[in-house]
Amino acid sequence: MSSGASVDRLTALLVAATLVALWAVVSRRRPMLAIAALLVMLCFVPPWIGVNLKIFVTPLTVACLVVAIALWRTRRARMQPFDLVMVLVLGIIALSFVLGWVPLEQAYGAVVGWGIAYVAGRVAGTGVPEKRLSTAIAVAFGIVSVLVVVEFVTRHNPFLDLHMGSASAYQRWGTQQVRGGVPRQEGAFGHSIALGGSLAMAMPFVWSSALRSWLKAVTIVLVATAAVLTFSRIGIGCTALAVALCVILLRDGVSRAFRIATVTLVIVGTLVAVPLATGVFDAAGAEATDSADYRGLLVSLLPTMAWLGQSSSAAQDSAGTRTFGAFGSIDSTPILVGLNYGLAVLLILAVSAALGAVALVRGHRSPALVAVVAVLPGLTSVAFITQFTTWFWFVVGVAVSQTALVVIARPSAAAALSPPAREPDRAEFARPDPVAAVVPGGSIAGRREDEVCRSTTS
Predict the structure, then answer these.
(1) 94 pLDDT band (50/70/90 cuts)?
(2) 219 & 275 share domain
(3) Where does the sequence pass through the membrane (predicted)?
(4) Is 297 domain-assigned?
(5) Do residues 65 and 82 both lie within one domain?
(6) Per residue in 109-128, pLDDT tens?
(7) Contact at 8 Å (CB) between 433 and 444?
(8) Which residues contact 389 (CB under 8 A, 6 or more apart)?
(9) Would residue 215 count as lying in a domain?
């Protein structure tokens, strides 16, 4: 690279850094601006758009960093158990990188990709009221769902026309997937499974939003329809599970009539969607079955996992393509985490996921926790890819914050419902007061004041 080009690149980076700093300063007074910008980068900027600074940096990562900085409030930053889990997991990965057990790209993906998104979710869940955050997410994914329907009708994804950014990332994510001769809708998420999983996680926020009932119902139908149009079994199944959990668990602020209407719409939508999805899967023939069988074969990689660091089966060719044994693609988050970072990290996260599901059952109910639990089964068949990775860890951070707020609020609610302290019997005030007889205008209060005055002057 010539010196002139280097100067131009440095100037552009300085200008970008200045704009990001200004963005953070403005967002500190207007937190919803930071949230809105993050949702725009999440939902409408493809994963291949970004800047290569030795490591590929996307606008979504920058948006998460701005949210973390702008919404951080030290007085509200109370450590929660899962915060310590994240510190432990990311610390193990960072140490493994220093010792040479994990390559830079994988270490960056976890420490920065997971960590910044998690912190952004933590501060957003604490600094933004739940209803406002849910409503912003509902609006963003409502627009995403409309665009997905348009993409299905027109058979054209406009985001694939955006070629700026990383050529290698575009080559990987900028192609149209097809199943049974029908395009699978991807939106700006680069992959139909990433879109389907993201829609599933958005559903509980739509349910808990402050939208008018009719608009909320329409948005729920749109999100469910978009999930079906991904023709991803993971996306469809997790979205259905999210709706079921919302109907059963998230009853606050939602009337019984709305729940009945939602269930009715879901049943009608299912009757319409099942023939469409079944036709596509039947036309795909053995494709879907082969995909499921492939994921089953990934279990054979378990013995190659190390306790700490990358698996012994990992290899990388001169073109930068990574493989594990005979597998070029690992479509399972737990298996990929174990292969990249070791069994210790995998077990810690697996136990944490199980405890999160237990917490939901025990009553720590929030839209974010419902979203995380709804998508957990799907993680066994999809890796952390494109924006889905950032979205997942952002929602995990929000879930930790919202669950902590519920726990804090419970003692206050219990105190408000507890019986008031016993009032003194009126007879106690009716007894003759010897001091009142000699002190003009004497009373109990007057007597106490007189006693205090005498004690201070003696």
Answers:
(1) very high
(2) yes
(3) 6-25, 32-49, 55-72, 84-104, 133-154, 219-250, 257-277, 341-361, 368-385, 391-409
(4) yes
(5) no
(6) 999 999 999 999 999 998 89
(7) yes
(8) 109, 113, 114, 117
(9) yes
